[in-house]
Amino acid sequence: MTEGNLPVLSAEEEMYLDEPYGGLFGDTVMAKVVEELVADPTMDYRPKYLVDITGKSEGSIQTVLKKLLKLKLIEKKIDGKHPVYRVRVESKKFAALSFLAYSMLDDRDGTDCMNVAISDYYNSVLRDEYEPQAVANIDNWVVGPGMTSADESEIRTISVSA
User: Fold this and answer.
1) Which CATH number does the domain housing residue 119 bear?
2) What's the average model confidence in pLDDT over 18-31?
3) Contact assessment for residue 80 and residue 48, using Cβ atoms and an 8 Å cutoff
4) Contact indicator for 61, 72 with CB cutoff of 8 Å
5) For residue 3, is it within any domain?
6) What is the pTM of this model?
7) Domains of the chain: total
8) Quick one: which of 104, 100, 99, 116 has its CA closest to 9?
9) Which of 27, 81, 99, 124 sits 20 to 30 Å CA-CA off 15?
């Protein structure tokens, strides 16, 4: 969006603009850290950086990082003497939080970001599990969404390997 196309926000909406997830989870340390992690999941996060970016205390950041480690949303590595944290992007919690972040934008701006993200997730992660490549029986070979047999005999899924 260009500056001229920005949506006009009500005073109520503006109040929640700078709060993680539009204020849905309040203005907690956890919400601020999670918002930062979801916003850039490829970054290596040091506790000092999270203290600086959130304005919260080192102790409260450490408490949140320990909880996020337990929940397996992040992983910890040691870089020299210092711990570095990174989002486990394969985590379903990360996917759900990302969808929620997109939904907040969609509801506020009237966009379609969440549906695009869900479609991308389905196509890259779930499609092969839920949509077989082809179905065959002795007399019939059908490829595509219908995947039915003409004579209703047993249908077997054939897996395709690269």
Assistant:
1) 1.10.10.10
2) 78
3) no
4) no
5) no
6) 0.68
7) 2
8) 104
9) 99
Q: Which two tokens stand for residue 71?
A: 């929940």
Q: How far is CA 37 from the centre of its chain?
A: 10
Q: Token pair for residue 96? A: 């759900």
> In one letter, which amino acid is 80?
G
Higher pLDDT, 13 or 153: 13
Q: Which domain holds residue 83?
A: 8-130
Flag whether 154 is in a domain: yes
pLDDT tens string 28-65: 999 999 999 999 999 999 999 999 999 999 999 999 99
Locus of tokens 């899924």: 157
Amino acid at 70: K
